[in-house]
Write a structure and sequence with these properties.
Helix content: 40-55%
Number of helices: 2
Strand order of the largest sheet: 1-2
């Protein structure tokens, strides 16, 4: 019986649907990034707008750009 508890290489996708949640996107993006900053495998956060009538999409784009800039992932 093997006692090897290592995890095989994999990737993680987190999919979050939003509907009129403009105030919640930035905190969510920040917290997910903070939780996974030391995660050694590839991961992605997919934000899905379900037809919001507020600024959900705009805030999602801003949050993604700000996080990428802060992490050095963009120019």
């Amino acid at each position: 019986m093997s006692t090897d508890l290592s995890i095989a290489p994999h990737s993680l996708s987190i999919v979050v649907p939003f509907y009129n949640e403009e105030e919640n996107i930035a905190p969510l993006v920040k917290r997910v990034h903070e939780a996974l900053v030391g995660y050694e495998y590839p991961w992605e956060l997919v934000l899905v707008d379900d037809g919001s009538s507020d600024d959900t999409v705009l805030r999602a784009v801003q949050s993604a750009r700000n996080t990428a800039r802060t992490c050095g992932l963009s120019n």
